[in-house]
């Protein structure tokens, strides 16, 4: 008898505590920020599009700067290689031989 009352009591307490702690899952569509929009969905979409455009622009600017730096380094390396090639040609001219 005591065993039955303990299991009934604990099962009841467990089920009520589970219900008290349970929460509903909030579903959001793609692009939802979770904040309620006070001007409607159209202004929210416009804001999100503008924000994405600004982020994309900033990313493109950084990539452009990186490409310009790489081009500058490439030109410097090519100039250095040309200088070394000219130096090698100058040294080999002084040595003589059948190819000069």
TrEMBL record:
One of its GO terms (molecular function) is ATPase inhibitor activity. Signal peptide: none annotated. It is found in: Mitochondrion. GO terms for cellular component: mitochondrion. Residues 1-20, 28-47 are annotated as: Disordered. InterPro entries: ATPase_inhibitor_mt (IPR007648). Keywords: Coiled coil, Mitochondrion. Gene3D superfamilies: Single helix bin. Belongs to the ATPase inhibitor family. Inhibits the enzyme activity of ATPase. This is ATPase inhibitor, mitochondrial. It comes from Microdochium bolleyi. The lineage of its organism: Eukaryota, Fungi, Dikarya, Ascomycota, Pezizomycotina.
């Amino acid at each position: 008898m005591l065993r039955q009352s303990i299991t009934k009591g604990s099962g009841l307490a467990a089920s009520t505590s589970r219900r008290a702690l349970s929460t509903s899952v909030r579903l959001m569509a793609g692009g939802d920020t979770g904040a309620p929009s006070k001007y409607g969905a159209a202004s929210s979409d416009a804001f999100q599009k503008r924000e994405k455009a600004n982020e994309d622009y900033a990313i493109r600017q950084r990539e452009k700067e990186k490409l310009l730096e790489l081009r500058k380094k490439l030109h410097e390396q090519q100039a250095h290689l040309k200088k070394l090639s000219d130096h090698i040609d100058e040294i080999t001219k002084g040595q003589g031989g059948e190819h000069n």
